[in-house]
Amino acid sequence: MTSNSNTVWTPSFWMQGWTYQSFLILPTDPEKQSPPGTSITTKKWAKGNLYLETSIDPPPAPDAIGSLVIPTPPGNVKLNVKAFVERGISPVKFEATGEVQNAPTETSAETNGAMYKLLGWAFRSENDKVSKIEGCVIAVRGSDARPNVELGGMPVGTVGAFIITST
Length: 167
Known about the structure:
The protein is mainly beta. It has helices spanning 29-33, 108-111; strands at 15-25, 42-54, 64-70, 77-85, 92-99, 115-124, 130-141, 159-166. It is globular.
């Protein structure tokens, strides 16, 4: 619960570490035909460490900037993140873009240019900071080498669910 959950809130991140997890919803053909409330097949899409820092620049600058590092077998993938958060009563609209830029030369062709968009809701904690963020993620672009396939191997346009929690 929050101390003033019905008051207008200006979300802040300060300098904080987060855990990012995303999930693909992959129902089988029989699951697609099942009634509401039925469990369906899902798969973890990505898991990594997100670092967000409240921006000190005035709008139209992002409200928070940082990076998302996702460990992969060939090496870490680092996305530069820019986040915008509405002011209002909790929960508030959250929108972010993560893009791989300037990857190390051994992986740059395989990762540079990849872009993901996050849309969701930021929830308020008792200290008026952001406590968690939930929503959907869409693969906007693959790497420079494979622009039509996102880094996990799914086609561009794939949508999943995400949750971001404080570490």
